[in-house]
Every structure is written in structure tokens, then in C-alpha cells.
Design brief:
alpha/beta, Rossmann fold, 6-stranded antiparallel beta sheet, Ubiquitin-like (UB roll), 19 strands, single chain
Amino acid sequence: MRLRVMSVDHPTGDAVLMEFLVPPGGMQGFVPGQFVTVSVRVDGVVHRRAYSICSTPDVLPALRLAVRRVEGGTVSTYLHDRAKPGDMIEARGPSGAFTETPDPGQRRRFLMLAAGAGITPMMSIIPALLQGEPDTEVDLVYGNRSEGSILFREPIEQLAAAHPGRFRVHHVLSRPSDGWRGKRGRVDPAFVSSLIDAAQEGEAHSDYMLCGPEAMMQALTEMLEGRGVPTSRIRRERFVTPRQTSPRPDAPQRGVYHVRGTSWEVVIPAGKTLLQAGVAAGLPLRSSCAMGGCAACKVKLHRGAVHMDEPNALTAREREDGYVLACIAYATEPVEVVSE
């Protein structure tokens, strides 16, 4: 779909907030917490990046994205410096499984753990939960560098004022001013564990959602698992591209693809992923972010072996069931895969 840029704002020094107009029929099935993959052409080359949606489905056809500037980042720099109202930007989606669909009959207590740009999907999920589940409560722990770098500070304060007792916010700053009266440091296991202990004196948290730097999420996940929290109740959203963990295969392989009831035989060139080889051969494979972050391209590996970069969006259960992500999977021997 083609999104029209309606407004461009810079709420903090390193973030741009953009509002788009979605065309009729776009964003069907959008669930709070999902993302879109935008495509921009810079110096004649098309670049694709996935960005979480920070608005709720009820405000469509308006759609908001917040993008933090990445040092040396091609797309984030373009959106910060060159995007303007009236521009048309191509996008695909919505995609992603880091979501919540409000259910008015539910009564839950969420603990949201975010840092930096990790707040973006939660600015879709939190308002939707507070509005759509009248008995649900949300605790948000949000880490940033300083007061001036807190993205969505005013909307968060407005949500807290509108839902007293149901939405509690804990800001954590690593480099605050001398006048800062809140928590100093980082969103670490000790601080989060103390909040969980305090919550359990009343009603324990039922759901945990994490989005931020990989090291933070890993440390918090280990702490939660150590406290006996089931893996099924811990959900994480990653913004980083998986790291190459070993040399990629240097020989072509034969691939058999079963997609929508039709089978194809494809030669997978050395250094190309299952997705790249399939798309080049004209196969109708599903995909979105193309960097292992959404699982839209997952396929079931029926035969053969692949190497995948880590970390990625596959759950432990999906791995056990034989799924791989076509966008970051490199065949190390002849393979047969099924796209469901």
C-alpha cells in the first residue's frame, strides 16, 4: 500500500513522529502491537525497514510511526531529514506477533518493560487495553537516558491521568538532571523484581511484555524465568537484525518449495536465503520485515538442514515443531519446505 505523509514532528532530538493516511482497504486485520515495513528509495536504491505502529486501530485511516535516528542509518536518516507532508511512502503489513487483542471480559495485570524506542509497540497496546478491558491494569517500566529523551512523555502522562489506579508508570533514567526524583540507572532485574514483589502483595502480574535492547531483554527474561514465570507468559519484540553466528554456506543447494498447494524445485544460490531464492524464482512466498523480526515468512522444514542467524522471532515451540524463517535461513544441504 502507499501511505501519504500527513504530518512530521520531532518530539525529541533523536526521534521523528510521522502520521500517515492509510488508503481504503489498507491495514486490514491490524492488531495493537503490530508493525509495517516501509520502503524508501535513497540514491536509487530501495531500502526496507520495519517500524512498530504507535497508534491504535480505532484511529484508522490515520496511522502513526515513531522512528529513532540510528547513527549511520540510511532509512532513519531519510525519514528524519527529508520526509515531509504530502510524500508517498510504500509499506506492507501489518505484521508481527507481539500483539494484544482487547477482550472486555478479561481481567488481567500486565507488566510492560521498555527502553528507548521499545515503547513504540506499547503505545498501541496500552491504550487499546485500557480502553477495551475496563478491569485490566497495566504497569509500565520505561527506560531512557534523560528527561528530554522520553518519547511519548506527554501521552503517557495523559493516559495515567485518565486511568488512575489502572495505569502506573515507572520512569528509569540513566543520565537524568540533578532535579530528577525518579529511579536512576537502567531497567535492570533487581528493580523490576522489586516491583513484582510489591505487586504480589496485592494481585500478581499475569502477562509480561518486553521491548528494548537485547541485553536488557535477555537479563529480564532470565530473571522472570528464575522466578518461575512460564515462558508462554513472557513475550519479546526485537528491533535488531540477527547477527551472523557462523560462516554462511558457500555452495548452492536444491530446494523443493510447497506453497499454496503447488510445488516448485529451485536452485538456492550460495549466500542466498530461502526467501531470496524463492522470490527470485517467482514463488508467492509471504514476507514482511525480511530480517528475522516478525515470523511472517516462517516455513516448515520437512527435509534437510539450514543455518539461521540469531536472535530471531521464532518461539521455542515453533523451533521444536520444525519451523524456520525463510528470510534468514541458508540451506546447508538439499531442503524441502512448506509454506502454510
